[in-house]
Design goal:
The structure is a single chain. The protein has 90 residues and is α+β, with helices and mostly antiparallel strands. The chain is 32% helix and 27% strand. The chain contains 3 helices and 4 strands, in the order E-H-E-E-H-E-H.
Length: 90
């Protein structure tokens, strides 16, 4: 199964080291593979440095592609992480 969704970054600090680490930690809980993309750039969802290379400030929309048998629960959790602004208060 493959799922694709556009996700908007709404936390004040954008996609920074702590938020990227949370994505990587989440990705480690699933067998499915996550690819994040912005414009023509793609990042491996299991690599903090790869995610940070996308350079995504607040307001950026990225595309998440998850492929694998557990893609659906993975996407649900990933969307929740973005909706909750990575646990940041501002």
């Amino acid at each position: 199964m493959e799922l694709i969704r556009n996700l908007k970054i709404t936390n004040e600090l954008g996609l920074h080291a702590r938020s990227a680490a949370k994505i990587v930690a989440l990705a480690g809980q699933f067998e499915a593979m996550l690819t994040l993309s912005k414009d023509d750039y793609e990042a491996d969802g299991k690599s903090i440095l790869s995610i940070l290379s996308l350079a995504c400030p607040k307001g950026t929309t990225i595309t998440a592609r998850i492929a694998g048998e557990d893609a659906e629960p993975f996407m649900d959790e990933l969307c929740r992480l973005f909706e909750e602004k990575f646990g940041e208060t501002s």
